[in-house]
Specification:
The structure holds two protein chains of two kinds. Chain A is α+β, with helices and mostly antiparallel strands. In chain A, 22% of the residues lie in helices and 32% in strands. In chain A, helix 2 packs parallel to helix 4 and helix 3 packs across helix 4. Chain B is built from 14 helices and two strands. Classes of the chains: A alpha+beta, B mainly alpha. Chains A and B meet through strand 6 and helix 2 of A and helix 9 and helix 10 of B.
Chain lengths: 389, 303
């Protein structure tokens, strides 16, 4: 059991979170595999996000760490100790639930004091700790209010205070910002991140919002169908997605599939509809092997009279104005649609539907992905970015 | 129609809505008139006339009957009995009903519907029949006593009837659904996430029940208790059939005064006391929980 340190929250103490390891964590429900040998090693103080569409197993994984779901097999090691079979009330883990789960019959202060009461702290200790916790989330004046008198954002902060007040080694958060509007969500993302950084608490965060994951996490584990597709820092995942699914789920991407050809010492990917795309030479790939590459829409340049390799000709099918940028759907050839994103600078040319344009991107922005299937399992000749579910 | 006139006029929207609202409201009130008339002639008027009798006695219009009630031990004892029996019934219903409601509320919706159905079946059997059935069960030669002596547990038949025990057994059995249903409705609406949150914060099962679940179920407890108590006050058949001399309740006394002693003044005073007590309790209920809970308790929402 983690040692309870009754010191002040949020001050620079040597308080470090715990190391959390998930080893081959598997959960079967009546023939359905919810998680399949999930492995994750989270270092003390790290903020890791489990990111994925619904059904990916991210919530099941979190619930197993919390103790509300018993794993079919595998281990959950908290500082080396396997807690996989321990009941939830003995795990000493702080949890922020999706709908906050603040006890409606208690005041804010009583809610935050609850875990301390369960641990039989003295009244003076409780009062002090509750005060500090509310201070940390900037709700000190709301101590005597009832949850129903608070806004969504405020309730969420109380839930956070309640989960942190007993100084757990690990904090779990289950899509806590889902119910908030965009501006508030973005504010809370930063606030949570700052609190997490100042308390050094190891945090596992679940969300399906990839922007949220990119903003807050030290590392992201992208999950799909019960498995971890890729783990990495936000930058790693965005710039070097390992699979088409990850490339699609995080940001948008244009996916091309084909076989490899070598000419001189350059490697090309040749698609079924005849496109020849240069591929970074550093990968060791066999000639003729079927591979896939993705290109981020913002890396593609649209213009006329472009030079370089590749230069693909197409027609603008759709113009989508997003405020700070514009997205174009460009039809290459007969039925390949790609997405290009351009910053709305004053001097940028305003393309319109039907314009004939050329598209170019540099070979460094061509990312090889190791699994040729896209998340929708659709026909590989379409470079339609698959919708994240 | 008025709508088009109003739309065209320069009057502000709020005034227009009020105008329409008033006319609509008037129409709805008119719809209630037949109901009020019926209620008034068949129910309110006779009761008012009857209650007026309570103020009439040999010494003219006065509170003599009420004073009689409170001072003569024979009658005041009945009032006390009624209160005690109602309270005991309520407590027993709570003790028996809470675990059962909890159990049913935590089943899948298929199974909870089935068990709830079983809870409701006795409603379709008249109280008279059920009370008689208890007589068959609880008598000296009744089924319970015969069974217990046949397996050798007792040597003499247990006194289960014509006493407080019999009355309480009968009343609890009859009133239990009135406790279970509001409890169930409230418990059903308690989000299981609260118990999970409590567990995550360090509360083992029983502490989570005590500090989180039970407080959240209190509206159901209050609704069920008040309902059972109010209903118990007016019980007649069950205590009449299953009770002894010391178990006389108000309703039985009223019957006695009307049919035997022909003392309408006293009977009306008793009825008045019962009515006032019930109204007071209902007002308390309304203030504390809202009347929707009483009615909604038989299938409504707690929050």
């Amino acid at each position: 059991m983690a040692v309870l340190r009754r010191g002040p929250l949020g001050r620079n103490q040597a308080q470090v979170g715990a190391r959390l390891q998930l080893a081959n964590l598997t959960k079967h429900y009546d023939g359905i595999v919810a998680t399949d040998r999930v492995n994750l090693d989270i270092v003390p103080g790290e903020f890791v996000t489990l990111l994925g569409p619904s059904g990916s197993g991210k919530t099941t994984t979190l619930m197993m760490i919390a103790g509300f779901v018993t794993p079919t097999s595998g281990q959950i090691l908290l500082n080396g100790e396997d807690i996989a079979l321990r009941p939830p009330h003995q795990r000493n883990i702080g949890i922020v639930f999706q709908n906050y789960a603040l006890f409606p019959h208690m005041t804010v202060a009583e809610n935050v004091a609850f875990p301390l009461k369960m641990r039989k702290w003295s009244r003076a200790e409780i009062e002090q700790a509750v005060g500090e916790a509310l201070e940390l989330v900037r709700l000190k004046d709301f101590a005597n209010r009832r949850p129903r008198q608070l806004s969504g954002g405020q309730q969420q902060r109380v839930a956070l205070a309640r989960a942190l007040v007993f100084r757990p080694p690990v904090l779990l958060m289950d899509e806590p910002l889902g119910a908030l509007d965009k501006k508030l969500r973005e504010e809370m993302q930063l606030e949570i991140k700052h609190i997490q950084e100042s308390t050094h608490i190891t945090t596992v965060y679940v969300t399906h919002d990839q922007e949220e994951a990119l903003t807050m996490s030290d590392r992201i584990a992208v999950m799909r169908d019960g498995r971890v597709e890729q783990v990495g820092s936000p930058r790693d995942l965005y710039e070097r997605p390992a699979t088409a699914f990850v490339a699609d789920f995080i940001g948008e991407s244009n996916f091309f599939e084909g076989h490899l050809e070598r000419h001189d010492d350059r490697v090309f990917l040749v698609t079924d509809d005849g496109l020849r795309l240069p591929v970074p030479a550093s990968n060791e790939i066999e000639r003729g092997e079927q591979i896939g590459v993705t290109v981020r829409p913002e890396r593609i340049v649209i213009g006329q009279g472009l030079s370089g390799d590749p230069v693909l000709r197409g027609t603008i099918e759709e113009v989508i104005y997003v405020g700070d940028s514009t997205k174009f759907r460009v039809l290459l050839g007969d039925n390949r649609l790609i997405t290009v994103k351009q910053q709305n600078r004053l001097d940028a040319p305003r393309w319109e539907r039907g314009d004939l344009v050329e598209c170019h991107w540099s070979v460094e922005d061509t990312v090889v992905v190791h699994r040729a299937r896209s998340s929708s399992g659709g026909s590989p000749t379409h470079s339609l970015p698959a919708e994240s579910m | 129609m008025a709508e088009s006139q109003v739309a065209a006029s320069p009057i502000g929207t709020r005034q227009a809505t009020n105008y329409l609202g008033r006319r609509r409201a008037l129409r709805y009130w008119l719809l209630l008139v037949p109901g009020f008339l019926l209620l008034g002639t068949v129910f309110l008027y006779p009761i008012a006339r009857f209650l007026l009798l309570s103020f009439q006695s040999e010494s003219g219009i006065s509170l003599a009957n009420y004073r009689h009630l409170l001072t003569v031990p024979l009658y005041s004892q009945v009032l006390i009995n009624t209160g005690v029996i109602a309270l005991s019934t309520t407590v027993l219903c709570l003790v028996l009903g809470y675990p059962l409601a909890y159990f049913i509320a935590n089943l899948s919706s298929v199974w909870s519907r089935r068990l709830l159905f079983l809870v409701l079946i006795p409603f379709w059997i008249s109280i008279l029949v059920r009370s008689y059935a208890w007589m068959v069960l609880l008598g000296r030669n009744g089924i319970v006593n015969n069974f217990l002596s046949s397996i050798g547990v007792i040597s003499e038949p247990l006194p289960l009837m014509f006493n407080r025990t019999g009355v309480l057994i009968g009343m609890v059995q009859i009133l239990l659904p009135y406790m279970i249903l509001p409890l169930f409705a409230v418990m059903r609406s308690i989000d299981p996430v609260y118990l999970r949150a409590a567990a995550s914060l360090g509360a083992p099962g029983w502490r989570a029940m005590l500090h989180v679940y039970f407080p959240l179920s209190l509206p159901g407890v209050a609704a069920g208790s008040l309902l059972v108590f109010i209903l118990s006050l007016g019980f007649f058949i069950t205590p009449a059939l299953l009770g002894g001399r010391r178990d006389m309740m108000i309703a039985m006394l009223i019957e006695q005064q009307v049919n035997q002693a022909l003392n309408f003044g006293l009977a009306a005073a008793l009825a008045g006391v019962l009515l006032v007590a019930t109204i007071v309790l209902l007002v308390v209920f309304e203030r504390v929980l809202g009347l929707e809970r009483l009615l909604g308790g038989l299938g409504g929402d707690a929050r």
